[in-house]
Design brief:
It is a single chain. By secondary structure, this protein is an alpha+beta fold. It contains 2 helices and 7 strands; from the N terminus they run αβαββββββ. Strands 1-7-4-5 form a 4-stranded mixed beta sheet, with no helix packed on it. A hairpin with a 5-residue loop joins strand 4 and strand 5.
């Protein structure tokens, strides 16, 4: 009978010990998974920032448009093609005075060659602002070192 009691106590202790080890292992795995998830998320965010910076083209405003009260804000490159090349740009523009006329955007590559252009006509009152789209030919590919004028 004593042997049975000691055997029962040993089994209970082993069972409790295994349960604690199992819970500790599970907590360690969960914490490690959480840490990896955070690192992966930060890595993906870093990649997204890098890609965003790498496709940022420079935008320059002509002095004659500045004199007519046009102010540039942010710009966003986007695609309208199945190929996925950036052939369009949305430009945030403010008009500090009445503006009636045409604005042309030219995409100029790193070799100073025009790769696309688009002209839009505007008839706006002073203090109007917003994003305005310039969609170029589908073969236009606005690259990272491009200048938009």
């Amino acid at each position: 009978m004593k042997k049975t009691i000691w055997l029962f106590i040993a089994i209970m202790l082993l069972s409790l010990s295994c349960d604690r080890v199992r819970k500790k292992a599970k907590n360690t795995i969960n914490q490690t998974g959480e840490d990896i998830g955070k690192s992966a998320s930060e890595f993906v965010d870093g990649i997204a920032d890098g890609v965003e910076k790498s496709i940022a083209a420079k935008l320059e405003l002509d002095a004659s448009l500045q004199a007519r009260g046009v102010v540039l804000g942010e710009h966003i490159l986007y695609t309208t093609t199945a190929r996925g090349n950036y052939n369009a740009v949305k430009v945030f523009m403010e008009f500090n005075q009445n503006f009636k006329g045409r604005i042309m955007v030219k995409a100029i590559n790193e070799n100073n060659k025009i790769t696309g252009r688009k002209t839009e006509t505007f008839d706006l009152k002073a203090n109007e602002a917003g994003y305005y789209s310039f969609v170029m030919d589908t073969l236009t590919d606005i690259r990272s070192r491009a200048t938009l004028k």
